[in-house]
Amino acid sequence: MILSVAVLVSHLAGSPPLLEYQPEPAELQRARQLLISRPAECIALTNYFLQRDEADPEQLINSRQDRVYQDQGNTYRTREQTLAALQIQALCQANEGLMLPADASLDEAIELGKNARQPHSQAASLLLKTKLTLAQGKTDQAQLLLAQAEELVGQSKQDRELLAKQLQLLQAESLLEQHKFDEAKLAFEQIRLQAQQQGDLELQAWANYLLGDYYRLLQQAELALSHYVETLELLTEQHQYYLKALAAENAATLYAGLGNPQKAVFYANQATTEFELLGNGPLLVGSLISLGRVTRANDDANLALVYFFNAMDLVRIQGDAGLMSRLYYEVGQSYLNLKQFKDALHYLNLARARFQMQNDQPRLVDTLLLLGRLHQDQQEPGLAMLQLEKAQTLAEQLDDVPRLIESHRLLALGYEQNGNYRQALTHQQAFHNYYERASQLNRLLTQSLIQESDQQLQQERELAELHLQKDNLQQERQRFAMLAVGLSLISPLLLYGLMRNHIRCRRLQLKADGLQQSLLVEPRTGLSNWRQLMQRLPQEMAKRQQRSEQWYLNEAIAQPFNDKIYYFLIRVPFMADLNEKLGLDYALKIQQNLGDYLQGRIHPKARIYDLRDGQFIYVISQRQVPELQQAIASIERMFDEFPCPFELDRRLAIGIIGHPFLPKAPHAMDDMRLSDILYLAMAAAHQLSEQTGDATWVELLAVDCQQAAFFNGDIRHCCIQAIHKGLVKVNSSHQKQRIDWTSLVPDPIAS
After folding, report:
1. Signal peptide location in the record (predicted)?
2. Residue of 213, 178, 210 lying closest to 191 (CA atoms)
3. Are 609 and 528 in contact (CB under 8 A)?
4. For residue 39, cis peptide bond before it (omega within 30 degrees of 0)
5. 501 near 477, Cβ under 8 Å?
6. CA gap 411, 428 in Å, rounded
7. What is the pLDDT of residue 10?
8. Which of 265, 324, 536, 609 places its Cα 20 to 30 Å from the Cα of 393?
């Protein structure tokens, strides 16, 4: 099995450069070429070279005869060559999966560099050992090795710049292994920027690739994809086959997980091409298997069979029985997808026999499940039930929940087709029980909501604490100013204190402003929230009240008041239950896309607020609305044209009022009472929507009268009575007689 982390060392670290007078022997040159493609031959070559006798350095230095020098070079090995051979051998052993021998080879190289007093050689060997240690998950040991290597790099006179780059990258990777994500990200970004400035394309590509691993570890698939694709673009003209293959393979896996099979096939093809150029047989076989799977997932099982059979030819040469068993399974599944049952049965039986021989129980369960499906498709219920029950028994022994879920599902389907409904019900119940055991959706949803609430509470606490710190710092500044008058002799010190205090105040003010701004925005959609509405509403109401009073006092004007602000309370059904219907990931993406979309679609002089639970308030001046019907149609069309791949319930229920609600008595309604009337209008529209199954709207409009006293008391009761008495007009998209206002009257439960 090829260890990618070990091969990565071979690309970044390698052995230190040899001295100019010391040419590298042919065995070591050939070993370097075979390090990745054929590590076993690489090990044999280095072992053969290390059997040479050690050369006497004095004879090499004092010799002035070319023939004597050449004989020494062909027969003996120098100290530098021994160091290089040990490092190459360690990498080859790691690539072959021989971690203990690799560790021993590096220990020997470290000891040799120490005895020779060559800090650069010792540091290079320590860096290689650090990489292998990280590959085995030993982060604490890796930290100690990195500390030793850092000290030696500082002492090195040769290759210091190269070793420093390797040290930086390994330190960043160590932070990632320790799950210190912020520090690791910062380190990778700094390495990438430095490499870009220095024109070091290879180091920049590796830092960019590891940033992709960072985002993938945080389950941010799209950001990880962008870094993998950028790595491939950086290396377009380079012969870094292994790194390009890794980046392409990871991109294919992520695209397959995101439901984009075309892109997955494209990058899987690229990965296979790069592995083929690399010349490593096992890596190429694994890449062909991955390519076949994504191709089959793209509904092209015939082409997938071509890839699987090509992989079979390579495996026959290598003689890997485990890989051959997996290929029999993949070929059988492909034939099953093509409904070629005879060929599918042949290869699945071969896979089953080999998995039994190799005692590979999980893959044996998978094979039995496929055989059960095959017999079900061939209308052979007895054989199908036999295979599925064997699969269930093995899965229960392994306590493998995903395979138990699939076995019970297929058994329930088979018994239902046979008319044995009691057994079908038993397996269906078992299916649901195991599914609930495996699924943690409800817990994750609850945890997400709690975290969101805690985050908001934490922001408010931090904001209050920052305000308190700001007040304290202002008091300190005042004290400093008073002391400066009497202590002018120490004015430089006081000036320093004032400047420092001013900078701290400025930083705290900026942080407080940022937190204040974040509290005014709904995090899921990015739209203004109810806090921002409540901040602006009193000022907006006061302004309209003043204009209403001016209109009322101007007796020469007989026209109706036409400077209202319309408030549209919109109930969007699909926003209320996105989490339950689509899951957290899709729901969050849809909410973010809707927020960006609404920001670009609303009227330039209008505003929209997200009140959560699928409710939005759309605010626009009457002067910007020549016809109310046009504004309503624009709102409905705005939500209808929202692009989304899922089926959404877009039947809006819109409640509409204008402010001032009573133009001749504008002060009779405060913001809370006005909001209650607006919710009453939306409730009536929602009632019509449930009756008709269409998008609806209801406008409540007070007649031109001065009976403000009629609205004293519970505003909802008063408004409904005013509707019945004709003091409040009702305009609606449907027959307003169908609204049951009595059902909207709050009726407290008797104690």
Report:
1. none
2. 210
3. yes
4. no
5. yes
6. 8
7. 41
8. 324
Which residues are paired to 76 by β-bridges?
53
Distance of alpha carbon 371 from its chain centroid, rounded? Answer: 36
DSSP 25: P
pLDDT band for position 453 (cuts 50, 70, 90): very low
Residue written as token pair 């996105």: 578
> How confident is residue 22, by pLDDT bands cut at 50, 70 and 90?
low
- The string of DSSP letters for 466-523 reads HHHHHHHHHHHHHHHHHHHHH-GGGHHHHHHHHHHHHHHHHHHHHHHHHHHHHHTB-T
Query: Residue with structure tokens 């959404």?
Result: 648
- Quote the radius of gyration of the chain (alpha carbons, Å): 37
Structure tokens at 222: 């799209």
**Is 661 buried (19+), middle (13-18) or exposed (0-12) by CB count in 10 A?**
buried
CA distance 135 to 213: 14
Q: Which long-range contacts (CB under 8 A, 24 or more apart) does 691-694 make?
A: 691/738, 692/734, 693/651, 694/651, 694/733, 694/734
Are residues 286 and 267 in contact, defined by beta-carbon separation less than 8 angstroms? no
DSSP secondary structure letter of residue 561 = P
What count of residues does the chain have? Answer: 751
Question: What pTM value is reported for the model?
Answer: 0.52
| pLDDT (0 to 100) of residue 567 | 92
Amino acid found at 295: T
Query: CA–CA separation, 614 vs 602, rounded Å?
Result: 17
Say yes or no to pLDDT of 67 above 70: no
CA distance 528 to 543: 21
d(CA 106, CA 89): 9
Strand order in the sheet with 653-659: 607-610, 615-621, 565-571, 653-659, 696-702, 728-732
Residue 473: exposure state from Cβ atoms within 10 A (0-12, 13-18, ≥19): middle
Tokens representing 588 are 């969050």
Residue 53 DSSP class? E
CA distances (Å), 707 to each of 661, 663, 741, in order?
12, 11, 21
Residue-wise pLDDT tens digits, 202-234 = 888 888 888 888 888 888 888 888 888 888 888
Residue of 265, 266, 286 whose CA lies nearest to 276: 286
pLDDT at 166 over 90: no
Region 357-369: mean pLDDT is 86
Using the predicted structure, report yes or no on whether residue 62 has a pLDDT greater than 50.
no
What pairs with residue 621 in β-bridges?
565
String of b and e for 194-229 (b: at least 16 CB within 10 Å)? Answer: ebeeeebebbbbbbbbbbbbbbbeeeebeebbbbbb
| Contact of 616 with 572, CB cutoff 8 Å | yes
Decide: 236 and 201 in contact? Cβ < 8 Å: no
Q: For the chain, what is the largest distance between any 2 Cα atoms, rounded to a whole number of angstroms?
A: 122
- Cα–Cα–Cα angle for 612, 615, 617, rounded to 5 degrees: 110
Query: Among 123-132, 460-469, 577-586, whose mean pLDDT is lowest?
Result: 460-469
- Find, among 235, 243, 313, the residue nearest to 278 by Cα: 243
Q: How many CA atoms lie within 13 A of 484 on its CB side?
A: 14
Q: What share of the chain is helix, strand, coil (3-state, %, to 5)?
A: 75, 5, 20
* Rounded CA separation 385/697 (Å): 57
